[in-house]
């Protein structure tokens, strides 16, 4: 599965027309490097270059590797999107989480990111949000102080956080009028499940 043509042969046998490739461990790196935005952007740019060189962003219009765009600095997020589009990306991935900034947080729907969203709309690129590390650990630690970060986590983590970050993310984008400013955006939620959607729709209707 590390050879493009071998993978296509298997996809033919399986009857799969196309596949999108997302970074598995990559979705946790932005959270780990929030204290060093430059390192985060340089690391992801290097990763995206490898992804394009090894897989291609649209190999034979069947394998679509998805570059990751960190949002820690709006200008560099825009530059990474421009680079990805220049190299044929059909989709890009961002984190469904508030963006850490000095002294607090900023919403991805903040107008500081409007140049990114404008280009995403104009290009028609698919903006995906893949489940990852959304930095919601403080919510768990409020209930279980000192809870360890490991594979053997408390079951309370799943109870508190299941669907929480992605619900907050898309709720914020709607309430902060991102889709009114850019009504041609194409977005997709990946590996976040879908059980959170009816509750979000209920909350939006209630707020309306």
Q: Major β-sheet, in short?
A: 3 strands, parallel
User: How much is the radius of gyration in Å?
Assistant: 18 Å
Count of DSSP helices? Answer: 10
How many β-strands, per DSSP? 7
Q: Overall pLDDT, averaged? A: 93
Tell me the strand order in the biggest sheet. 3-6-7
Percent of residues in helices:
40-55%
Secondary structure: elements and pairs:
Layout: H1 4-14, E1 19-21, H2 29-32, H3 37-54, E2 63-65, H4 74-86, E3 91-94, E4 99-101, E5 104-106, H5 114-123, E6 126-130, H6 137-143, H7 155-161, H8 164-175, H9 178-181, E7 186-190, H10 196-207
Parallel strand pairs: 1-2, 3-6, 6-7
Antiparallel strand pairs: 4-5
Helix pairs in contact: 4-5, 8-10
Structural summary, described in words:
The chain has 10 helices and 7 strands. The chain is an alpha/beta fold and 208 residues long. The strands form 3 sheets. Strands 3-6-7 form a 3-stranded parallel sheet, with no helix packed on it. Strands 1-2 form a two-stranded parallel sheet. Helix 4 runs parallel beside helix 5 and helix 8 (164-175) packs parallel to helix 10 (196-207). The longest helix is centred in the N-terminal third of the chain and has 18 residues, at 37-54. It starts with a helix and ends with a helix. The mean pLDDT is 93.
